[in-house]
Protein backbone atom coordinates (compact mmCIF):
# COMPACT_ATOMS: atom_id res chain seq x y z
CA UNK A 1 0.00 0.00 0.00
CA UNK A 2 2.74 2.42 1.02
CA UNK A 3 4.71 1.57 -2.11
CA UNK A 4 1.66 2.25 -4.28
CA UNK A 5 1.01 5.51 -2.46
CA UNK A 6 4.62 6.55 -2.94
CA UNK A 7 4.41 5.74 -6.63
CA UNK A 8 1.22 7.78 -6.98
CA UNK A 9 2.79 10.76 -5.20
CA UNK A 10 5.91 10.55 -7.37
CA UNK A 11 3.79 10.40 -10.52
CA UNK A 12 1.82 13.46 -9.39
CA UNK A 13 5.01 15.40 -8.68
CA UNK A 14 6.47 14.48 -12.06
CA UNK A 15 3.28 15.55 -13.81
CA UNK A 16 3.33 18.86 -11.94
CA UNK A 17 6.95 19.47 -12.91
CA UNK A 18 6.19 18.65 -16.53
CA UNK A 19 3.36 21.17 -16.75
CA UNK A 20 4.78 23.93 -14.54
CA UNK A 21 5.58 27.15 -16.47
CA UNK A 22 9.35 27.62 -16.93
CA UNK A 23 11.53 30.44 -15.61
CA UNK A 24 13.70 32.38 -18.05
CA UNK A 25 16.90 33.42 -16.29
CA UNK A 26 18.16 35.94 -18.85
CA UNK A 27 18.20 37.09 -22.46
CA UNK A 28 19.84 34.81 -25.02
CA UNK A 29 20.04 36.39 -28.47
CA UNK A 30 19.79 34.45 -31.73
CA UNK A 31 23.17 33.75 -33.39
CA UNK A 32 24.71 36.50 -35.52
CA UNK A 33 23.51 36.21 -39.10
CA UNK A 34 20.06 34.89 -38.18
CA UNK A 35 17.25 36.44 -40.22
CA UNK A 36 13.53 36.87 -39.72
CA UNK A 37 10.63 38.56 -41.45
CA UNK A 38 7.68 40.16 -39.71
CA UNK A 39 4.43 41.59 -41.01
CA UNK A 40 3.51 44.96 -39.49
CA UNK A 41 -0.03 46.36 -39.54
CA UNK A 42 -0.69 50.00 -38.60
CA UNK A 43 -3.81 52.04 -37.91
CA UNK A 44 -4.51 55.56 -36.62
CA UNK A 45 -1.45 57.44 -35.37
CA UNK A 46 0.85 54.56 -36.28
CA UNK A 47 -0.41 54.71 -39.86
CA UNK A 48 0.23 58.47 -39.89
CA UNK A 49 3.81 57.90 -38.66
CA UNK A 50 4.75 54.85 -40.75
CA UNK A 51 2.92 55.99 -43.92
CA UNK A 52 1.90 52.38 -44.63
CA UNK A 53 -0.97 50.21 -43.40
CA UNK A 54 0.72 46.84 -43.86
CA UNK A 55 4.32 46.00 -44.69
CA UNK A 56 6.67 43.01 -44.51
CA UNK A 57 9.98 43.78 -42.81
CA UNK A 58 13.07 41.55 -43.16
CA UNK A 59 15.42 41.78 -40.19
CA UNK A 60 19.02 40.60 -39.70
CA UNK A 61 20.76 39.94 -36.39
CA UNK A 62 24.20 41.50 -36.11
CA UNK A 63 26.68 43.16 -33.76
CA UNK A 64 28.53 46.45 -33.75
CA UNK A 65 30.09 49.12 -31.54
CA UNK A 66 27.94 52.11 -30.61
CA UNK A 67 29.07 54.93 -28.32
CA UNK A 68 32.13 52.86 -27.44
CA UNK A 69 30.21 49.74 -26.39
CA UNK A 70 29.49 46.44 -28.10
CA UNK A 71 25.77 46.06 -28.85
CA UNK A 72 23.41 43.53 -30.44
CA UNK A 73 21.64 44.77 -33.57
CA UNK A 74 18.46 43.90 -35.46
CA UNK A 75 18.45 45.77 -38.77
CA UNK A 76 15.35 46.38 -40.92
CA UNK A 77 14.27 48.93 -43.56
CA UNK A 78 12.68 50.99 -40.76
CA UNK A 79 15.95 51.28 -38.79
CA UNK A 80 18.33 49.34 -36.59
CA UNK A 81 17.40 48.34 -33.05
CA UNK A 82 20.37 48.45 -30.66
CA UNK A 83 20.26 46.09 -27.68
CA UNK A 84 22.49 45.64 -24.66
CA UNK A 85 24.54 42.41 -24.58
CA UNK A 86 23.32 39.22 -22.91
CA UNK A 87 21.88 38.59 -20.38
CA UNK A 88 20.11 41.99 -20.41
CA UNK A 89 18.97 42.48 -24.01
CA UNK A 90 17.70 45.95 -23.06
CA UNK A 91 16.54 48.23 -25.89
CA UNK A 92 18.99 51.13 -26.08
CA UNK A 93 17.92 52.98 -29.24
CA UNK A 94 16.69 52.74 -32.80
CA UNK A 95 18.95 54.43 -35.34
CA UNK A 96 18.50 55.25 -39.02
CA UNK A 97 20.92 55.97 -41.88
CA UNK A 98 24.11 57.63 -40.73
CA UNK A 99 23.34 56.56 -37.15
CA UNK A 100 20.69 59.26 -36.84
CA UNK A 101 18.86 58.52 -33.59
CA UNK A 102 15.17 57.88 -34.23
CA UNK A 103 14.42 57.10 -30.57
CA UNK A 104 16.61 56.51 -27.53
CA UNK A 105 15.61 55.26 -24.08
CA UNK A 106 17.27 56.22 -20.80
CA UNK A 107 17.66 53.92 -19.00
CA UNK A 108 17.35 51.26 -21.72
CA UNK A 109 14.04 49.37 -21.79
CA UNK A 110 14.35 45.81 -20.52
CA UNK A 111 12.42 42.86 -19.18
CA UNK A 112 13.11 42.18 -15.51
CA UNK A 113 14.92 38.86 -15.34
CA UNK A 114 14.18 36.15 -14.44
CA UNK A 115 10.83 35.95 -16.24
CA UNK A 116 8.12 33.85 -14.64
CA UNK A 117 4.34 33.90 -14.75
CA UNK A 118 2.87 36.37 -12.25
CA UNK A 119 5.95 38.60 -12.00
CA UNK A 120 5.37 42.38 -12.07
CA UNK A 121 7.85 45.24 -12.23
CA UNK A 122 7.82 49.01 -12.75
CA UNK A 123 10.26 51.68 -13.89
CA UNK A 124 10.66 55.30 -14.95
CA UNK A 125 12.18 56.22 -18.31
CA UNK A 126 13.09 59.07 -20.65
CA UNK A 127 12.47 58.66 -24.40
CA UNK A 128 14.04 61.05 -26.90
CA UNK A 129 12.64 61.10 -30.45
CA UNK A 130 15.24 62.55 -32.81
CA UNK A 131 16.06 66.09 -31.69
CA UNK A 132 12.76 66.71 -29.88
CA UNK A 133 12.43 67.26 -26.15
CA UNK A 134 12.62 64.07 -24.05
CA UNK A 135 9.39 62.42 -22.91
CA UNK A 136 9.28 61.14 -19.34
CA UNK A 137 7.07 58.15 -18.62
CA UNK A 138 6.42 55.37 -16.12
CA UNK A 139 5.91 51.73 -17.07
CA UNK A 140 4.43 48.71 -15.28
CA UNK A 141 4.84 45.24 -16.79
CA UNK A 142 3.33 41.89 -15.88
CA UNK A 143 4.13 38.37 -17.09
CA UNK A 144 0.54 37.26 -17.50
CA UNK A 145 0.92 33.80 -19.05
CA UNK A 146 3.11 31.11 -20.58
CA UNK A 147 1.20 29.85 -23.58
CA UNK A 148 1.14 28.89 -27.25
CA UNK A 149 0.85 31.61 -29.87
CA UNK A 150 0.17 30.92 -33.54
CA UNK A 151 1.45 33.27 -36.25
CA UNK A 152 2.17 32.77 -39.98
CA UNK A 153 5.59 31.27 -39.10
CA UNK A 154 4.01 28.56 -36.91
CA UNK A 155 3.09 27.90 -33.28
CA UNK A 156 5.51 28.80 -30.49
CA UNK A 157 5.77 28.58 -26.69
CA UNK A 158 5.94 32.12 -25.32
CA UNK A 159 5.72 34.35 -22.29
CA UNK A 160 2.90 36.89 -22.68
CA UNK A 161 4.10 40.18 -21.16
CA UNK A 162 1.80 43.21 -20.89
CA UNK A 163 3.34 46.66 -20.30
CA UNK A 164 1.21 49.72 -19.52
CA UNK A 165 2.80 53.16 -19.93
CA UNK A 166 1.78 56.49 -18.44
CA UNK A 167 1.93 57.91 -21.99
CA UNK A 168 -1.41 56.26 -22.75
CA UNK A 169 0.04 53.23 -24.52
CA UNK A 170 -0.16 49.50 -23.78
CA UNK A 171 2.25 46.98 -25.32
CA UNK A 172 1.84 43.20 -25.31
CA UNK A 173 4.80 40.96 -26.15
CA UNK A 174 4.59 37.25 -26.95
CA UNK A 175 8.24 36.49 -26.21
CA UNK A 176 10.05 33.24 -27.03
CA UNK A 177 12.91 32.77 -24.56
CA UNK A 178 14.13 29.77 -26.55
CA UNK A 179 14.58 31.85 -29.72
CA UNK A 180 15.35 35.21 -28.09
CA UNK A 181 12.76 37.15 -30.11
CA UNK A 182 9.21 38.46 -29.88
CA UNK A 183 6.98 36.19 -31.94
CA UNK A 184 4.19 38.76 -31.87
CA UNK A 185 3.65 42.25 -30.45
CA UNK A 186 0.71 44.61 -30.23
CA UNK A 187 0.79 48.29 -29.28
CA UNK A 188 -2.37 50.24 -28.51
CA UNK A 189 -2.35 54.03 -28.10
CA UNK A 190 -5.30 55.72 -26.43
CA UNK A 191 -6.67 59.16 -27.25
CA UNK A 192 -4.47 60.59 -24.47
CA UNK A 193 -1.25 59.59 -26.25
CA UNK A 194 0.82 62.50 -27.63
CA UNK A 195 0.48 61.09 -31.16
CA UNK A 196 -3.22 60.22 -30.78
CA UNK A 197 -4.99 56.84 -30.86
CA UNK A 198 -3.73 53.99 -33.02
CA UNK A 199 -2.67 50.36 -33.11
CA UNK A 200 0.32 48.44 -34.38
CA UNK A 201 0.56 44.66 -34.66
CA UNK A 202 3.63 42.68 -35.65
CA UNK A 203 3.77 38.92 -36.33
CA UNK A 204 6.58 36.60 -37.33
CA UNK A 205 6.28 35.32 -40.90
CA UNK A 206 9.56 33.43 -41.28
CA UNK A 207 12.70 32.67 -39.29
CA UNK A 208 16.15 31.36 -40.21
CA UNK A 209 18.39 30.66 -37.21
CA UNK A 210 22.06 30.71 -38.17
CA UNK A 211 23.80 27.47 -37.21
Protein described:
This protein has 211 residues and is mainly β. It has a single domain, classed as YmcC-like fold (Beta Barrel). Helices cover 12% and strands 55% of the residues. Strands 1-2-3-4-5-6-7-8-9-10-11-12 form a 12-stranded antiparallel β-barrel. Strand 8 and strand 9 form a beta hairpin. The N terminus is likely disordered.
Give the SSE map:
Blueprint: H1 2-19, E1 35-43, H2 44-50, E2 54-66, E3 69-76, E4 79-83, E5 91-95, E6 101-109, E7 120-128, E8 135-151, E9 154-165, E10 169-176, E11 181-189, E12 198-208
Antiparallel strand pairs: 1-2, 1-12, 2-3, 3-4, 4-5, 5-6, 6-7, 7-8, 8-9, 9-10, 10-11, 11-12
What's this entry about, in short?
By secondary structure, this protein is mainly β. The chain is built from 2 helices and 12 strands, in the order H-E-H-E-E-E-E-E-E-E-E-E-E-E. The protein has one domain (about 25-210): YmcC-like fold (Beta Barrel), CATH 2.40.360.
Jot down its keywords.
single chain, 211 residues, mainly beta, YmcC-like fold, twelve-stranded antiparallel β-barrel, globular, disordered N terminus
Amino acid sequence: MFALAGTAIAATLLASCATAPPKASGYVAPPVGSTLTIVQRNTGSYLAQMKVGEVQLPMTRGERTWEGKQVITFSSPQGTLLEAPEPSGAWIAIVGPGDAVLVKWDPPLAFSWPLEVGKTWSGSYRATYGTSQPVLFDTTCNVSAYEDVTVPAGTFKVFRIVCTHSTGQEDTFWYSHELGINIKTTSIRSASHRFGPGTQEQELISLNIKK
